[in-house]
Design goal:
heterodimer, A: alpha+beta, N-terminal domain of TfIIb, B: alpha+beta, 2 domains, 5-stranded antiparallel β-sheet, 6 helices
């Protein structure tokens, strides 16, 4: 087992260093989710003055998503289209980037567009990233390049985190002096884990 | 560079805590990693839960309190039905009150009719995959009233546990940087790897909204 120690240690160190900033995003965002009221007071959302633009025709495409994409391309706006709401003479949809929410409202009778933006800040950017791609609107999700990349990164981080837990156990087991205390720490963790699940279910 | 006794002690405890906090959090990390993957891959057939949910509807006669205050009615109904959970989505009218009582993987939508004293309970129960998913996001947060925290003590306990796990993970990250810094000559690529990670994460959190 000892002969694998240097290799496992090297992998644990490099993979750990690479994913650590992403794990920080996930960890900080947990605190933001759990204490939304506090963080709302700490960093309130800032509304940016509304912009009104008249387009020379609303680009129509074969699907709602493609139409929405064509509209934001015409407006020079980039981001992830969250969902699309289409009414008789209205198309509206939010375009999101971590920390910035842009709402596009198009009046199809007059070709006028109302653009409202909210600067949500860095902390909300972490919570947005934490929830993405998520379980909702799977059909639409990943319509921007950044979210496609983030999706891969988020998955990669989780797989590497699982690998790190395995390599961490291996490295700990090789350190004989830490075995007893390590077993106690693990047992305590299992105890708390089981107690919490029993309490909930 | 000479190492002071304080730096030595800090390094010693940093390494020790990195190992043991990591081991302590092991099962929590597995739980949140796996449930996170499930949430991001709703198309995974083996983990489908929505179609497999069990649904039941029951009707129960309820003793209503004299002043029809929503909090009082909800407390009374929950007590009489012998149920517990996070209460949300309360809608009160002159004739009725609607609310939801949730436990991860098990939800009850309740409708109490004040005119006939009947409580209609529509319950849904998820399988293990559904329970895992809902556990990941279960924090009693109210989107419309973020100031109001959880209203069930078990949710509060779970939220505290999630906070603790998040802080533990923060510590594991920072302690790993300290540990690498100590052996940076031996692991020279560490600066590049950490730099890449920081650059990638920083781009998403700080830069993306500016471009």
């Amino acid at each position: 087992m000892k002969k694998y120690y240097p290799l496992v240690r090297t992998l644990h160190l490099y993979f750990g260093l690479f994913i650590s900033p992403f794990v920080l995003i996930f960890s900080v965002s947990v605190l933001v989710f759990n204490h939304a009221g506090f963080f709302d007071r700490l960093t309130p959302v800032k509304a940016i003055p509304v912009e009104r633009i008249k387009l020379d025709g609303i680009p129509r495409d074969t699907s709602d998503l493609l139409t929405a994409k064509a509209i934001i391309a015409k407006l020079g706006i980039e981001g992830e289209i969250d969902f699309i709401s289409i009414k008789e003479d209205h198309i509206s949809f939010p375009v999101l980037k971590p920390g910035l929410r842009t709402k596009i409202e198009v009046d199809t009778r007059t070709d006028s567009v109302r653009i409202s933006r909210q600067e949500e800040g860095t902390l909300r950017a972490t919570s947005y990233l934490h929830t993405m791609p998520g379980q909702h609107n799977a059909r639409l999700r990943g319509n921007s390049i950044f979210l496609k990349i983030w999706k891969l990164l988020a998955d990669g981080v989780v797989y590497l985190l699982l690998l790190l837990t395995a390599s961490g156990i291996f490295l700990w087991w090789c350190l004989k002096v830490e075995r007893r205390l390590g077993l106690a720490a693990m047992a305590l963790g299992v105890l708390l884990f089981s107690a919490l699940l029993l309490l909930i279910f | 560079m000479p190492t002071t006794p304080l730096a030595k002690a800090l390094n010693y405890w940093n390494r020790k805590l990195h190992i043991h906090i990591g081991l302590f959090l092991l099962f929590f990390i597995w739980l949140f990693a796996c449930s996170g993957l499930l949430l991001n891959h709703s198309s995974w057939k083996f983990a489908s839960f929505w179609e497999e949910r069990e649904q039941t509807t029951t009707l129960t006669r309820i003793q209503l309190p004299a002043p029809l205050d929503s909090a009082l009615v909800i407390r009374q109904v929950v007590r009489q039905l012998g149920i517990a959970g996070e209460v949300s989505e309360i809608k009160m009218t002159l004739d009725s009150v609607d609310f939801r009582v949730t436990v991860p993987g098990y939800g009850r939508n309740l409708h109490v009719d004040f005119r006939n004293g009947l409580c209609t309970q529509k319950a849904f129960r998820f399988n293990l995959w559904g329970k895992l998913r809902t556990l990941h996001t279960f924090n009693g947060a109210n989107k419309t009233h973020p100031e109001s925290g959880p209203n069930w003590w078990v949710t509060t306990t779970w939220v505290l546990a999630m906070d603790g796990i998040a802080l533990g993970l923060l510590f594991l990250c920072v302690s790993s940087w300290v540990m690498w810094y100590k052996v940076r000559r031996e692991f020279g690529w560490g600066a590049l790897v950490l730099g890449l990670g920081l650059l990638g994460a920083g781009y998403f959190v700080f830069l993306l909204r500016m471009v």
